DNA sequence: AAAAAAC
């Protein structure tokens, strides 16, 4: 293609030897957007990156990262982007979406240089973490090019960002709030921005960003190329696409609200007060590399994270109330494996791409069924088996039903050894009583999927804990009732030595025997 | 109901 220096061997600055080793996701840096470097047998049939029309420096970076075959969205989108067409991509993260725009953007931009305060391209992301992830993508694939990029996000010094902009950037990666702020202060000109990416449009919509996006789009020249990505194509999204795009090439690579078949799921109904203990059992039982634990509330993220740390787990918290520097450093520590468990709000439910994530736990049933799909979609990537287990309380039947309706399949019920399994309460909500709990919940006795009832141990009929009257918690035990203040950590169950998880001794579920690196995730504490 | 995003 165009004339670029075929950098002989520029700083392989990456911390890891940039060897051709295909170690895709152990890398942690999450360019895992591009799955499966080497497909064993049938790879002849697959397209190659080298056929996509990317020039040498970019191809070299791809090679060095060990990727040979583009994913479907990459194979389909890249040629059109290079042609200058608008693209409407319906794809979720994990399908290789990010690289499907970063790679051709690098190609297009590599022809010329940036001018002061006039970014040549703009990428809009709904969260700061996603913005960072895209920036990493540019670092990885652009390492043999001399292009510059800047991250324009809230929570960090504006002075610094301004300075970078003043020097001129090729790629500006931004969250809407800060971008508009800076624009209104006159620190930014978008008149020369001819390439616009609107990523995660459905999420932008959910988050109420659309007016901001419209405002931003109006700052740009109509003579621009626009790439628009969304995980779903609801009518509202379609309307937006019609508004922003010009004769787009439409590419769809995944159906919305589908649960990847590589994810083994399970759900346990337990008392609210037992959740932390139940989670610990699951964390210890599972032979996992790393896990994300989702909570519905920021406050609960903090409480749970502290609790886990207190119990000897390697855990960190992530939600929007934490300082930006902490957010990034926690995420980085998790990606590098320094932290094994990331406890977070829905900030990380979508888009965040962490290579080789083995487990997702829903400490709370998400309020919206689609969020369930997004959350558990963090695992089971790139053809690898992932595990997603959910803890529900007896009054959450409706939420679970909504999920099962959306995904079209029931979540197999599991039991957790040593933790009492309850049933759905008849009462709509929070109203005391429940059906007399029976063991071996009739709810969904026979897992209809291939043995997903992994951590369940049917034999565990000896569930010790005598049934306590649920909801008796009102006064004591730090009941969730009042307590708006961060609940004291001592609300934890006394560190009564959890009984060793039984049931894995003689009957180890098949998925746990899959080859994984043998480091044990969790300090076998206590 | 909750979460995210600007100062």
UniProtKB/TrEMBL annotation:
Residue ranges occupied by any DEAD-box RNA helicase Q domain in the UniProt entry: 47-75
> What are the alphabetically sorted keywords of the record?
ATP-binding, Cytoplasm, Helicase, Hydrolase, Nucleotide-binding
Q: Where is the composition biased (Low complexity)?
A: 1-25, 442-465
Q: Does the keyword Plastid apply?
A: no
Residues covered by the Helicase C-terminal domain: 278-422
One Gene Ontology term of the biological-process aspect is: response to temperature stimulus
For the region Disordered, what residue ranges are annotated? Answer: 1-40, 420-526
What are the recorded GO MF terms, alphabetically?
A: ATP binding; hydrolase activity; nucleic acid binding; RNA helicase activity
Domain (Helicase ATP-binding) spans 78-251
Question: What EC class does the entry list?
Answer: hydrolase
Q: Which GO terms describe its cellular component?
A: cytosol
Question: Which residue numbers does the motif Q motif cover?
Answer: 47-75
Does Hydrolase appear among the keywords?
A: yes
One Pfam match, given by its short name, reads: DEAD
Q: Which family does it belong to?
A: Belongs to the DEAD box helicase family.
PANTHER family to which the protein is assigned, alphabetical: ATP-DEPENDENT RNA HELICASE RHLE, ATP-DEPENDENT RNA HELICASE RHLE-RELATED
Listed name of the protein: DEAD-box ATP-dependent RNA helicase RhpA
Q: What species was this sequence derived from? A: Komagataeibacter swingsii
